[in-house]
Amino acid sequence: MGSKLSVDESVQVVIVGGGFAGKAAASQLKSNGIPFVLVDIKDAFHHNVAALRASVETGFARKTFISYKESFQDSFKQGRVSGINLQKQTIVLEDNEKIHYSHLIIATGSDGPFPGKFNKASTKEMAIELYENLVKEVQKAKHVVVVGGGVAGVEMAAEVKTDYPEKEVTLIHSKTALADVELQPHVRQTIKDILLEKGVKLVLGQRVSNLNELTLNNVQENMELHLDKDTEVITADLILCCTGGRINSSCYIDAFGDKVLSNGALKVTDYLQVEGYNNIYAVGDCADLREPKMAYHAGLHAQIAVTNIIHSLTDKPLKTYKTGPVTMLVSMGRNDGVGQLNGYYVGRCLVTLLKSRDVFVSKSWKEMGQKMPK
Question: Which residues have CB under 8 Å from 366's CB, separation 6+?
Fold first, then answer.
């Protein structure tokens, strides 16, 4: 890709959602000269792969929010999509503004607890301030409890313990194995070993039964966490929740009916088209694909969707998307990590070099054509 494409004036691609899939699609459409509108509730892309680093390191949050307007100018629209009219080929915003599409890319992503996710209608500066406030809370805390031992949870615990080794850090996970089920057992065991080496206390195979009654992300002395299988009470003064996310389906669930699964994902063809609609694509977390929900995969989806839109406009065969062996790098603080690449184990030194040092923030700034702040 890269050469400008001459298209009919009726062509306008609308992208709903500006996460990793949405911003990648927008960048590729821009480089090909295809008219598009990217719609997101925020005014800046959130590089949430680095959200956990931004929660512990002063000043880092500014590197994780990148202005859409500076990258995409008038092709960006801040707003919340409330619905899709499939007959009229329009998306409807919360203020009732309608935007017409010839092709639609749904990239609504998923939501989850702060700080791992930030999906609020907000300005870049307001979002940065929230993360900077959390850094101050982490610095004040003596005992931090991380609830959830998936990838976000283990990375969060490692980030806190790396920057503040003197703090007591406990991770509570409902399963006995840490991180993602798609990871090799050796990778998951290494993650556990790293946490133990850093001095993180692990409470595995148990849930916090009173989590809804507790204050999150703010220091409060002597908060008691009750476990579902143990009479032991864990006392902490800061609780960070890193439990699983849910797919953002509210804007399309009414439009697509039986094409929406019970978890909110959209059924897609091998071309990443929503079943029954050859001009509508679902990419990223909202596409029903048997693979981990990751920024890496979201970028691959965007590339296929944009390629197929171009091919449909130029009468070329469409490309299929095939899931392959899992690639996942887990950052365990700036000085450690582990993972697998196309199904092969990747050791700690290499993951530290590839990901852990800057958590890929420079990559996103480069892809959006902007200079990262120091």
Answer: none
